[in-house]
Amino acid sequence: MHRGKLALLGGSPAGPVPADPHPSFSRRALRRAMDLLERGMTVGLGKHHPIIREAEDRVARWQKVKHCMVVSSGHAALQCALIGLEVGPGDEVITTPYSWGASTSCILHCGAIPVFTDVDASTGLMDPATIEPLVTRRTRAILAVHIHGQPADMPAILRAARKRSLAVIEDGSQAHGAEIRGKRVGRFGDAAGFSCMGFKLLGTAEAGYLVTPREDVYWKAALCSQHMGRSPDPGFPSSLRPYADSLVYSYRLSPVTAVLLSEQIKKVDREIAGRRRNVEELRRRMRGLECLSIPELPPGFVASYYTLSLNFDEERAGISRDTFLEALNAEGVAAGCYVPSPIPRWERLRTKGYRGPRTPWTENLLRAGIDYRSMSFPGCDEKVRRAVDMDWNYVRRAPGRMARLAGIFARIEEHLPELRDWELRRQSRAAATPRGRARPSRREVLR
Ligand SMILES: Cc1ncc(COP(=O)(O)O)c(C=O)c1O
After folding, report:
1. Residues near ligand 1 (Cβ within 6 A)
2. How far, in Å, is the centroid of ligand 1 from the Cα of 405?
């Protein structure tokens, strides 16, 4: 066990605790990608291309969902899901304020209005009890996000949706392989979008996919998002043929990336199991800690841990979360606050008094009379205030890694009185200097 002062207070760092390289590609994946490049096969316009078909078949089988369309990003996948459900101007989509911005911007880019629920203050997941009061006659869909690899409460969300005949979309970008009672996320709603950019659990280069059990959704999404709407593909509906043209988003995926997706999916279950094993070991080792905890999920809900979002208890600790983060970073453990504030408070969603560059949505929000600044999200505020977020590329069994991590957390807890004094000294210095920094800069973790 490391002795002496904390690194933030002048001691030497106890870390780093190296993670595993991610994404990593098998020799076969690299060979197949290289082969496509050598043969100049960089374009595939739909299922009639064998590499695109292979990727879509593999993902559909793994997700256990009938239809899959590979696309260029997670954002594209989500926008395609909304397009496939014909969500558009005049519609409202209920979603979460605690997420990566793409789960909101996909709604804005369809011309629809995002309406925000609150979230659970421990997990940051959509609180289903806050859905129903938001439903109006304009509500078309609920878009739930499985944030930090944790599955949202899909049974409750589906119950709320069914009562009012709303469509349900899942954003599984951070949660490939997360499950609820053995059923993988992406299988619950009318459609789901996943990101497969390099950081993600199913990490390639830049990619995404849409899955849906509904054939109509699949083809309507394809029609608007790919070269000629994928009209040469087998099964393209004759009713859509007059509308197949090039007035499309260019969301197609290159076979070079599609082949990586096909290969990565072969090892994703094994990697997710490793991530879970390491979190469970860390949870056991953190049992004695008073100020830092890993959120508990209900029985049957299993996360896949894209990131690990811990909660810090400022009241118990007597120091701010930001001071704790600084102490952790100084020890060599990279951690930060992933969602800086509830999305509806972000500057580009301001309606009254917005002075930034023109957006495609501000006028739309103003016409709908939206003023997100007047709304409150107490659960989300609390999660943002407590979160200590870490990238979680701890996949392999490496003896001692979780013990070291838990040891660093414990060491910081042991030194809380000194950190309290340090924080007070800094606050009084900042108060004495008119332009002094009152708060430390936040160190963002990778998304
Ligand atoms: C929750 C969530 N949704 C959507 C996206 C968008 O994915 P991409 O970056 O591939 O467009 C991301 C990725 O960062 C994400 O984390």
Report:
1. 73-75, 99-100, 102-103, 145, 171, 173-174, 195, 197, 208, 447
2. 28
